[in-house]
Design a protein that fits this description.
Largest sheet: 9 strands, mixed
Oligomer: single chain
Radius of gyration: 14 Å
Number of strands: 11
Order of helices and strands: HEHEEEEEEEEEHE
């Protein structure tokens, strides 16, 4: 996973630009040129949890919402075995970094290439986002190599209670 400082920078840049530009400025992941990331990219949906997709300026990335509520990068470093929370949504195992809740950094587990998604839980339902991205892009564009041994089903959803 990205160091938290880098994630904070990524989010602040994207948030800062999303209000005044039509293109979201993101950094491509180290393995964004993996052909499977192209498979993920062409399957990204036009909307996620009601948020419209926006243009990004980096290979194998996606952004939804204005300002951006969901950011995706394909080709990130794959997480190894961990005791972090693992959930299964959209047919995909996801490792959850809850350190910045209600904003989550979630990374696929046991898939090549690895995909990370930054989700603003104050704007969108993380469960809905991961289900939609898993079913449309990640499940069909990546290869399963292993699965989590213990999984949970849902993340807390701030949008379900109105904020």
């Amino acid at each position: 996973m990205l160091p938290l400082l880098l994630v904070a920078g990524l989010v602040s840049v994207a948030a800062g630009l999303s209000g005044c530009a039509t293109t979201v400025d993101l950094d491509a992941a180290p393995d964004a040129n993996d052909p499977a990331c192209a498979e993920v990219s062409v399957r990204l949906p036009g909307t996620v949890d009601g948020q419209p997709r926006r243009w990004t300026d980096a290979q194998a990335t996606g952004a939804w919402g204005d300002p951006s509520a969901v950011l995706l990068r394909c080709g990130v470093a794959a997480p190894g075995p961990t005791e972090a929370k693992c959930i299964t949504l959209g047919g995909v195992d996801w490792i959850v970094d809850e350190s910045r809740a209600p904003r989550y950094l979630v990374t696929t587990y046991g898939r090549t290439p690895a995909v990370e998604v930054f989700i603003d839980n104050e704007t969108v339902s993380p469960n809905e986002v991961l289900s939609q991205l898993g079913q449309t892009a990640v499940q069909n564009g990546t290869t399963v190599e292993r699965t989590c041994t213990l999984t949970e089903e849902l993340l807390p959803d701030a949008t379900a209670s109105g904020g």
